[in-house]
Amino acid sequence: PFLRLLESQLQDQKRKYDEEVEALKKQVDVTKEQLEKQQQTYLQIAQLSPEAQVEFGIQQEITRLTNENLDLKELVENLEKNEKKLKKQLKISMKKVQDHKASQAMVLPEGRQYDFNMEVAVQRKEKDFQGMLEYHAEDEPFLIQNLIT
Questions:
Q1: Could you please report the per-residue DSSP string of 54-77?
Q2: How confident is the model at residue 35 (pLDDT cuts 50, 70, 90)?
Q3: What are the coiled-coil residue ranges (predicted)?
Q4: Which is nearest to 56 in space by CA: 68, 64, 71?
Q5: Looking at the structure, do residues 39 and 57 belong to the same domain, yes or no?
């Protein structure tokens, strides 16, 4: 039994090692392709005149900055959408809290006060309870009165 356990552990380690080796080989291949492309671009640039090399470098930088600018613009748009969504959720939550406070103020007897400054969860999962009610012993007369009315 112990040898089988060691053997299975060894096989697992070998499998993980093989997977890592394959992943690294793929990464090396991708890096080689990128290097070849860069070398070809460099050879093409080296054949150009100095003025054309400067122009090419400027064009490359303009392209890079334009792409970066577009990415940042998209990020800003996504953040603005998210901000609007969160503000809307906040308004809805605040409305629910105010409604809850108003309904509690009507239902609670004058002698009882609760602290409504607790944090409110933005999303609540509604549950359907049947037959069971959990309450504090001091709330029993209040609950009976509400059940009767």
A1: HHHHHHHHHHHHHHHHHHHHHHHH
A2: very high
A3: 3-96
A4: 64
A5: no
pLDDT band at 125 (very low <50, low <70, confident <90, very high): low
Question: Is there a contact between 62 and 51 (Cβ–Cβ < 8 Å)?
Answer: no
Say how far apart CA 18 and CA 13 lie, in whole Å: 9
Instruction: Please give the pLDDT value at position 109.
Output: 54
Q: What pLDDT sits at residue 72?
A: 95
Residue in 103, 100, 107, 89 with CA at minimum distance from that of residue 143: 107
Answer whether 0.70 is exceeded by the pTM. no
Residues 39 and 7 in one domain: yes
Averaged over 113-126, what is the pLDDT? 52
Residue 109 DSSP symbol: -
- Strands in the chain per DSSP E: none
120 found inside a domain: no
Task: Tell whether 39 and 25 lie within a shared domain.
Answer: yes
Measure the CA–CA gap between 97 and 13, rounded to whole angstroms: 56
Strands (E), 75-131: none
Percent of the chain with pLDDT over 70: 81
